[in-house]
Design brief:
Number of strands of chain A: 0
Shape of chain B: globular
Shape of chain A: globular
CATH class of the largest domain in chain B: Mainly Alpha
Oligomer: heterodimer
Strand content of chain B: under 5%
Structural class of chain A: mainly alpha
Largest sheet of chain B: 2 strands, antiparallel
CATH superfamily of the largest domain in chain B: MetI-like
CATH superfamily of the domain at 65-164 and 197-274 in chain A: MetI-like
Radius of gyration of chain B: 23 Å
CATH topology of the domain at 65-164 and 197-274 in chain A: MetI-like fold
Number of helices of chain B: 12
């Protein structure tokens, strides 16, 4: 029995190995280049002769990545908070009330989920211009919130529907008001769902590219993806070892967070996709 | 009475915010696409469908439209073909499955723009590490300038597109596979059905609704996908790798042809609406089934 599982495991890993190699390839390139010295980067060899940790502090000094990190944190945290605050009541209404327009609202959310910001980017740019908010980080917060609401309501509602109503009904029987039941029975049970949804919303905002590229003008306002791209685009010589070190700093913390949480996403999506 | 109004109060803030971010820009795009606009965005006289006429006479737009079709079809079909076996394997019990799942999901965790920046370096013609790796393996003799020509750049972009779409697709399939009851397979194997028959007669039909949903959602995402092409080639060299989204961005923010850019947006909006209606139909059918 043990033996057949071992054999199967080897066979499966053998099947998966080509795709795993191709998937890991760019991230291996990123990590290795980030640790090469400037001269070695241009050599056509894979492995560095010595690991050049200095790239990270040097990159930090020259690339302005510190302020980009602060901007990304500011935008992602505030837009996540705002998204969650407006999505919880909406998800609660969808999962606990029957009302006229409930289906229309769900379809509106679905359509807003289908539209990526790029299709509307010209109109969003005009919106920001007329509000005098070009090159202002707060405009990113509002736009990210608008586009994340659909995903957030959808995820929260699919989790809320799995919280048994009996508990709330029992609490009403005992004479508790709807509000009190909400606060002391429903919300504590919903906390894990909210945390998971918030983290995915945060990652979406953290990784967003096209809106930030369009709205931000001055370098000190750049978010991480724009900062890293600015180290590459339109330059005559590119310090690839610094660029890869910056890309490493921008992606590894979020990748770890995501790896840790991906099974919740699998569950939330599969509940949401069929129900 | 309070009961009846409560849900509307609850959905109101999210509705207002989402509507403002979607409907207002949409209104702007419609009016831009029907007026003469200068490059600073000032509306001048009403020109009707003039911008659409100019677009359809623009060979770069026509080429970008066809390329969008090739891009979407290749990435979506490639993703589905790669994802089905991966999901089947990850659904089995084997040593290191949790680790394998994390590896496969990795591209989802890293932003597309960062992945694209890394690929731009890996595909560098002089000292890119793809050339080094392929030379070391003896597959190529001399360096290939991957991004300097559309015939190598565009297939690489499609490959990157497939790699970053696999995690989401596998996730949907895993959700579908977990709903397949085990006793069906037991019954089938006592009836003498082999592995392939089990796949063909049980797994595939039960997975079909999830394949449909993954197909439509991927079509929408890939059709909208901007960072891979923009970061690696910016639609170049000489407009030879533009798809609609990158051409739209180029028209609007590089060339200052805002009216035509708005027209491209509207055309894309209509196409997306059609995809969405197909998706809603499919999802509704699932709900009833």
């Amino acid at each position: 029995m043990m033996n057949s599982k071992l054999k199967r495991s080897l066979l499966f890993w053998l099947f998966l190995s080509p795709i795993v190699v191709v998937i890991l390839f760019p991230y291996a390139v990123m990590t290795i280049t980030a640790m090469k010295s400037a001269t070695e980067v241009l050599n056509p060899t894979w492995w560095p002769d010595e690991i050049h940790w200095q790239n990270f502090p040097e990159m930090w000094q020259t690339s302005g990545i510190g302020s980009a990190l602060a901007n990304s944190l500011y935008v992602s945290i505030l837009s996540t908070a705002l998204t969650i605050i407006v999505s919880i009541p909406a998800a609660y209404a969808i999962s606990r009330y029957q009302f006229a327009g409930r289906n229309a609202y769900r379809q509106f959310l679905l359509i807003s989920q289908m539209l990526s910001p790029i299709v509307l980017v010209i109109g969003l740019f005009r919106l920001a211009t007329s509000a005098g908010m070009i090159d202002n980080l707060n405009v990113l917060i509002i736009i990210y919130t608008g586009f994340n609401i659909a995903f957030c309501v959808w995820m929260l509602q699919s989790y809320f529907s799995t919280i048994p109503r009996d508990l709330e009904e029992a609490s009403w029987m005992e004479g508790a008001s709807r509000w009190r039941t909400l606060r002391s029975v429903f919300l504590p049970l919903a906390v894990p769902a909210m945390v998971v949804t918030a983290i995915f919303t945060f990652i979406n905002a953290w990784n967003e590219f096209v809106i930030a590229l369009t709205m931000l003008r001055r370098e000190e306002n750049y978010t991480l993806p724009i900062r890293v791209l600015s180290l590459v685009a339109g330059r005559y010589t590119v310090d690839w070892h610094y660029v890869m070190a910056a890309a490493f700093v921008a992606s590894v913390p979020v990748a770890i967070l995501f790896a840790w949480l991906q099974r919740y996403l699998v569950r939330g999506l599969s509940i949401g996709a069929v129900k | 009475m309070q009961r009846a109004t409560a849900p509307y109060f609850l959905i109101l803030p999210s509705f207002l915010l989402a509507a403002a971010i979607i409907l207002w820009p949409l209104k702007e795009i419609i009016s831009l696409s029907l007026h003469d606009v200068n490059r600073f965005g000032m509306l001048r006289e009403f020109v009707g469908l003039e911008h659409f006429r100019v677009l359809f006479a623009d060979p770069d737009f026509i080429a970008a439209t066809w390329r969008t079709l090739v891009w979407t079809v290749c990435v979506v079909l490639g993703t589905l073909i790669v994802s089905v076996p991966i999901a089947l394997i990850l659904n089995e019990d084997f040593y290191g499955r949790g680790f394998a799942r994390i590896l496969i999901m990795l591209p989802w965790a890293i932003s597309l723009s960062m992945t694209a920046v890394v690929w731009r370096w890996a595909l560098n013609g002089e000292s890119g590490m793809l050339n080094s790796a392929l030379r070391d393996l003896g597959i190529i003799g001399s360096n290939i300038q991957w991004l300097a020509d559309a015939t190598t750049a565009f297939p690489m972009q499609i490959l990157i597109g497939i790699l970053v779409s696999v995690p989401f697709t596998v996730t949907i399939f895993l959700g579908g596979l977990s709903s397949v009851p085990d006793d069906l397979y037991e019954a089938a194997s006592t009836e003498g059905a082999g592995r392939w028959d089990q796949f063909r007669l049980i797994t595939l039909p039960l997975l079909r609704p999830f394949i449909n949903i993954a197909f439509v959602l991927n079509t929408i995402y890939v059709f909208n996908s901007f960072p891979i092409i923009w970061v690696t080639t910016q639609g170049g060299p000489s407009n030879s790798t533009h798809i609609l989204v990158t051409y739209l961005y180029e028209l609007g923010f590089r060339l200052g042809r805002l009216g035509e850019a708005a027209a491209v947006s509207l055309i894309m909006f209509v196409i997306l609406l059609v995809f969405t209606i197909i998706y809603v139909r499919l999802a509704m059918r699932e709900e009833k089934a």
